[in-house]
Specification:
Length: 202
């Protein structure tokens, strides 16, 4: 117990020293990519960066990585995408500092999707939240560790959600087949038609 306490104090101390070395200065990071290719399947890989997906009008996909970070960390975040046919993979790479700590303020990846329907949709984060709104999706797989998952105004054929300590909120959601599993998080549903549902906790 004493060792854990010492490690916690040391971690906090290192974080404070790192912040002081930056002089408390922050930088507003804003990286954006746009394209108009047809996308049917979407996969998103992130770490502690929140992921938000919304439906928009028009024909242009817009990917925006934004937030406030310490000045020295402004080049530590990379947004990249790989497209193969109708399949799109998005990655947010978060480089650690020399002391091994990921330093950030608040970061979000906003995906504006100009489509009504997505075939396969997969999002995986560690401590980042996942928010999805306004889409019809055939197969969804949303995985978060300590982040929360929020889904609103959506229709699914198959919906699979897995979290560790993160909560799950579903509002005005329809799904023919639903599989939701969380370790210590909670599940909240409002106007949630889960069809054939499997719910688990551990």
């Amino acid at each position: 117990m004493e060792i854990i306490l010492i490690l916690m104090i040391a971690t906090v101390g290192v974080a404070l020293l790192y912040q002081r070395s930056n002089g408390g200065k922050t930088h507003h990071l804003h990286k954006q990519e746009r394209f108009t290719e047809e996308i049917k399947n979407l996969q998103v890989e992130s770490t502690s960066v929140d992921v938000e997906v919304v439906k928009v009008e028009g024909e242009e996909w817009r990917l925006t990585l934004s937030g406030n970070v310490y000045e020295k960390d402004k080049d530590h975040f990379t947004l990249s995408h790989e497209q193969k046919g109708n399949n799109l993979t998005l990655r947010v790479t978060e480089e650690k500092t020399r002391v091994g700590i990921q330093m950030r303020k608040d970061m979000k990846l906003l995906i504006e999707a100009p489509v009504k329907t997505i075939g396969s949709f997969m999002v995986e984060t560690s401590s980042g939240d996942i928010d999805v709104e306004g889409l019809a999706i055939h197969h969804s797989t949303l995985t978060a560790s300590s982040g929360d998952v929020t889904i609103a105004d959506m229709i699914h054929e198959n919906l699979q959600i897995q979290t560790s300590s993160g909560d799950v909120l579903l509002k005005n959601v329809q799904s023919r087949n639903t599989d939701i599993h969380t370790s210590s998080g909670e599940v909240f549903g409002e106007k949630f038609d889960f069809g054939t549902g499997v719910f688990g906790s551990s």
